[in-house]
Amino acid sequence: MAYFYMVFLGLLVAYIGVVSSTFVWKHHNNEELPLVLEDIHEKCPNITRVYALTEPSVRNVPLYVIEFSDSPGFHQPYKPEVKYVGNIHGNEVLGRELLLGLADYLCERYLNHDRKIKTLIHTTRIHLLPAMNPDGWQLSYETGANDYLIGRNNNHSVDLNRNFPDLDAITFELERQGISHNNHLLRDVTRLTAPVEPETRAVIRWMMAIPFVLSAALHGGDLVANYPYDESRSGAPVSEYSASPDDDTFRDLAMTYAESHADMADPKRQGCRISNDDTTSYNFGKQGGVTNGAAWYSLKGGMQDFSYLATNAFEVTLELGCKKYPPTEELEEEWHKNREALLAFIWKAHIGIKGIVGDDSGFIKNAIISVVNITGPVPRPIRHDITTGDYGDYYRLLTPGHYEVTASHPGYFSVSRVVTVPHHQTAARILNFKLEPKTSWFDDYTTYGSYPYGLRDGQPRIYKRSLYEQVTNMMLEKKDTKH
Predict the structure, then answer these.
(1) How far apart are alpha carbons 155 and 138 in whole angstroms?
(2) Alpha-carbon span 79 to 127, nearest angstrom
(3) What is the C-alpha to C-alpha distance for residues 186 and 109, in angstroms, rounded to an integer?
(4) Which of 77, 150, 254, 409 lies 20 to 30 Å from 438, alpha-carbon distance?
(5) Which value, to the nearest 10 degrees, does the dihedral of the CA atoms of residues 361, 367, 372, 373 take?
(6) Are strands 64-68 and 353-359 parallel, antiparallel or unpaired?
(7) What is the phi/psi pair of residue 387, to 5°?
(8) What is the CA radius of gyration of the chain?
(9) Model-level pTM?
(10) Are 421 and 429 in contact (CB under 8 A)?
(11) How far apart are CA 294 and CA 414, in angstroms?
């Protein structure tokens, strides 16, 4: 009898454990949020890691992240890094709950041997930050969670999505001067218009520490996928389309989310009111569920544009619904509306090209990858370069077409190659580069008739015209002396 009692007790404990680990659609408070993440990690310890950013919120609440990867905690070449950031505005809470739900879904489907989810996790490193502004969430919750503005800001009353260094102003000024410099602009910041908040600092350090390729910020208050630039060039407050050099790619990223969402791109759905007391509304579904940021309204200091201009990451802003704080009973329905879109967007980290830049000694960090679109009759340079990481790896998101890609680094000869990016990509085209040091080129060219080291390895090279002329003249002089 005692034996059967012990067996029953064991089964009961196991059952309670299973029930306690089942994800519940509700508004999780700041104490419950890390417990949900830890519970998911316990279920999927081999593919997850829970960590906090380097700095907590103003009220000392850690900013927790859960990571999914087949090698948690480590960057791996050829595997792009993706992040989702929720709850930037504390009273816009749907993104917070969707990211908790997404984390649970990825774990559960992986354990159930879902082939597509397993492939996604084995080929991508995914980071989910459910709440960037836990203090604002707390204020919104404590005041009834029904005000359009209360809880939006952090505990210093600062809008975190206006608190990033304004890199748009720098790139627009460089454009006016005719200077082609549109990437990694944080080093060009000479002064800040306002102090950077601790939550913002933590996210900036995160961006700089991990080589993100793709990112999305989750907001609420409308239903639309918003893409750069958020800031207008002229200073116009609304209705000025402000295209980035990667406008085609950004529009494709935004369209992917909108068209995969249950009704974001539906031209017949109900539009969202601008505020609680406003009777007018507009349905972004009439324009495919997407908008250029400044064409909607212009803002300075946003995270989306900062991410693009300070790092290699392409970021969009996802407005997930008219209600900033939907009631609990609607959360699961919203999950079903957004689930496929959340997954489809992560897969977009695998479009375009990727590869490694190196030399005979190993990887080349901070090599520059430049791209010219040669699809049409007139070549169009995409004036936004990206750089290689610690392992010499790069990831360049591109839409289908033909491109000339150049890898360069000070002290090396540049190398250019032509590549075709196909439609319906399931994996980025791999395009590796081996660069030749300029010093070894001259060291090896000591005898007439010899070749620069590596020229016979089948790798095409494009050298500067001035160098080509110098070598040609040298060869002609040698020829004259022989005859």
Answers:
(1) 10
(2) 13
(3) 39
(4) 77
(5) 80
(6) unpaired
(7) -130, 160
(8) 26
(9) 0.87
(10) yes
(11) 36
Map residue 25 onto helix, strand or coil.
coil
Q: Please give the structure tokens belonging to residue 211.
A: 């080589």
Of 131, 84, 89, 101, nearest to 36 by C-alpha is 101
Concatenated DSSP letters for 374-415? -SSSS-EEEEEEEE--TTSEEEE---SEEEEEEEE-TTEE-E
Amino acid type, 105: Y
Active site residues: 319
Determine whether 36 is exposed, middle or buried from the number of CB atoms within 10 Å of its CB (0-12, 13-18, 19+). buried
Amino acid at 108: E
Point out which residues pair with 319 in neighbouring strands: 219, 224
Burial class (CB in 10 A: 0-12, 13-18, 19+), 116: exposed
- As given in the structure block, the two tokens for residue 50 are 């829970």
Q: Are 373 and 170 in contact (CB under 8 A)?
A: no
Cα separation, 424 vs 252, in Å, equals: 12
- d(Cα 325, Cα 87) in Å, to the nearest integer? 11
| Tens of pLDDT, residue by residue, the chain (483 residues) | 444 434 444 443 343 343 346 899 999 999 999 999 999 999 999 999 999 999 999 999 999 999 999 999 999 999 999 999 999 999 999 999 999 999 999 999 999 999 999 999 999 999 999 999 999 999 999 988 777 789 999 999 999 999 999 999 999 999 999 998 999 999 999 888 899 999 999 999 999 999 999 999 999 999 999 999 999 999 999 999 999 999 999 999 999 999 999 999 999 999 997 665 656 789 999 999 999 999 999 999 999 999 999 999 999 999 999 999 999 999 999 999 999 999 999 999 999 999 999 999 999 999 999 999 999 999 999 999 999 999 999 999 999 999 999 999 999 999 999 999 999 998 999 999 999 999 855 554 443 333 333 333 334 333 333 343 444 344 344 444 433
User: By three-state DSSP, how is residue 448 classified?
Assistant: coil
Residues 6+ apart with CB under 8 A from 386: 183, 312, 368, 369, 394, 395, 396
Pairing of strands 368-373, 362-363: unpaired
164 close to 302: Cβ distance less than 8 angstroms: yes
d(CA 324, CA 94): 7
Rounded Cα gap, residues 170 and 181, in angstroms: 10
Of the candidates 135, 183, 131, 188, the residue with the CA atom closest to the CA atom of residue 165: 188
Cα separation, 417 vs 299, whole angstroms: 38
Q: Round to whole Å and give the CA distance between 460 and 453.
A: 13
